[in-house]
Design a protein that fits this description.
The structure holds two protein chains of two kinds.
Chain A: E1 4-7, E2 10-13, E3 19-25, E4 31-37, E5 43-49, E6 56-57, E7 64-68, E8 74-78, E9 87-94, E10 101-103, E11 107-111
Parallel strand pairs in A: 2-11
Antiparallel strand pairs in A: 1-3, 3-8, 4-5, 4-9, 5-6, 7-8, 9-10, 9-11
Chain B: E1 3-5, E2 10-14, E3 19-21, E4 24-26, E5 32-38, E6 44-50, E7 56-58, E8 64-68, E9 73-78, E10 87-95, E11 101-104, E12 108-113
Parallel strand pairs in B: 2-12
Antiparallel strand pairs in B: 1-4, 3-9, 5-6, 5-10, 7-8, 8-9, 10-11, 10-12
The chains are: A mainly beta, B mainly beta.
Chain lengths: 112, 114
């Protein structure tokens, strides 16, 4: 059981380039999330999808777009990367009531 | 809006010593509370969660946490720390449908001296 799988694990971009981070879960969870992790700030929610077909902004959505492709997959797109988006990005999924969020291993993204 | 504060950015303890990591939250309703651990280069692993009921919650790897509503706290404890416990620990509060939306604290990095 793979859980939450993120690709790629590492990526270096130049300012202005575009990039899509992929996330897939095999736990049949309804809800999926994208976070960014920066030193000293914990994880901050970028976007989430409470169920297939819906997406909503989180705390720090500017500069990002998302697509809930189907129940399994939730992608995060940077249309024009900026150095401030250098971070570690985590995808998570959650099932029904009283279940916690499950996290992938992260994508380490550097923007030069 | 909810918030979480972890007052200690770094903590160093000796192997075998007891551990307490502090977490204070702000949330207007009954909170759903979580502790996650992150080893270097890894994702977050759930240690324990509080949804309701007994305020003393047992988790994996010998950890426990106590929910104290009067103090808005959810401190993590372990009686005897092992070198493998060195990691970063995150407290989170969940809002919405059964904690659907998480707000994380800034994390506490634990170092263990031999």
């Amino acid at each position: 059981n793979a859980g939450v799988t993120q690709t790629p694990k590492f990526q270096v971009l130049k300012t202005g380039q575009s990039m899509t981070l992929q996330c897939a879960q095999d736990m049949n969870h309804n809800s999926m999330y994208w976070y960014r992790q920066d030193p000293g700030m914990g994880l901050r929610l970028i976007y989430y999808s409470a169920s297939e077909g819906t997406t909503d902004k989180g705390e720090v959505p500017n500069g990002y777009n998302v697509s809930r492709l189907n129940k399994r997959e939730f992608s995060l797109r940077l249309e024009s990367a900026a150095p401030s988006q250098t971070s570690v990005y985590f995808c998570a999924s959650k099932g029904a009531y009283n279940q916690p969020q499950h996290f992938g291993d992260g994508t380490r993204l550097s923007i030069l | 809006a909810q918030s979480v504060t972890q007052p200690d950015i770094h903590i160093t303890v000796s192997e075998g010593a007891s551990l307490e990591l502090r977490c204070n939250y702000s949330y207007g309703a009954t909170p759903y509370l979580f502790w996650y651990v992150q080893s270097p280069g890894q994702g977050l692993q759930l240690l324990l969660k509080y949804f309701s009921g007994d305020t003393l919650v047992q988790g994996i790897k010998g950890f426990e946490a106590e929910f104290k509503r009067s103090q808005s706290s959810f401190n993590l404890r372990k009686p005897s720390v092992h070198w493998s416990d060195a990691a970063e620990y995150f407290c989170a509060v969940g809002a919405g449908n059964a904690g659907n939306m998480l707000t994380f604290g800034g994390g506490t990095r634990l170092m263990v001296k031999p």
